[in-house]
Amino acid sequence: MNTVTKSPSGPETAENTRTSFESTLKSSDTEETIDIWFYRPIGYQIARFCARVGITPNPVTIVSIFFGVAAGILFYYQELWINVIGMLLLVFANSLDSADGQLARMTNNKSRLGRILDGAAGDFWFISIHIAICLRSQNEGWSALIWVPGVVAGISHVIQSAMADYYRNVHLFFIKGTSGSELDNSRDLQKEYDQLTWGRHFGQKLVARTYLNYTKLQESFSPNLQKLLAVVRQKYHLGLPQTLVDDFRVKNRPLMKYTNIIQFNTRVLFLFLWLFIDQAWIYFFFDIFVLNPILIYMCVKQEGVSRHFYQKITSERENQYPTL
């Protein structure tokens, strides 16, 4: 379940702390401008420090959860100066969230548990934020019905984040292979889950069940993509042809901007705006009526790309991607 691959030199060596900034990034195709110019440089410095003193990625992720939840709590108050402190805490939490992935790549210390924690961290932040905004809105005169858009927006956020993360990893899988991607599939996860018992592996099985459900959610929104991945894994198990890699990158890269829009930066910039004008409730409706249509458009376009390459690979006449 929690397989870790470490570099022989270990996370604390000086060699690892000198790892270039660019090597700690996932891919230029999937990185957002704000991340490149702001969060990633901060995360890189945090990652270098952690590597130097021997701190591993998972503790960094866990610390980020505390900062993010604290930020959400501070959004409950109507005093702007308290909200600003919350904004700074949320920015720092996201810097830590950036740092844990950069540290994992810097030290070659990656694990599935780390991936699960990384995804769960953001959910904890926004659960705190949604609860705080609902309670704040009730204090401002809203009825308990404010919890309806609060919950709907929360569910929307989970799906948006799940699909954005999934599509990014699919893109990385095609352009970098398994070494540069964290792409999992429910079939393999189900086998691992079935090997665990509730009596002997309660904690592991609970985490495995949660992650299996999360992966099935991602797959349920992308049926054409599942067909493409299945035929690619079957036909190109020795490696993807370079022509397929190049063609997929060209056709799929424009969709990466939508994964960025529905992720952290856009929603948080607007959240801060609503807090500054003391109308935090607008955040729920922004999530539901602005980000959800972008999610739908992103899924439809990605399914079109997947259908295109599935037909090209499976057509005997049009197959331009022979096996290696």
From TrEMBL:
Keyword field: Membrane, Transferase, Transmembrane, Transmembrane helix
InterPro entries noted in UniProt: CDP-OH_P_trans, CDP-OH_PTrfase_TM_dom
Source domain of life: Bacteria
Protein's name in the database: CDP-alcohol phosphatidyltransferase family protein
Gene Ontology CC annotation, any one: membrane
Signal peptide residues on this chain, from the entry's feature table: none
GO aspect biological process, one term: phospholipid biosynthetic process
Keyword Cell membrane attributed: no
Organism classification: Bacteria, Pseudomonadati, Bacteroidota, Cytophagia, Cytophagales
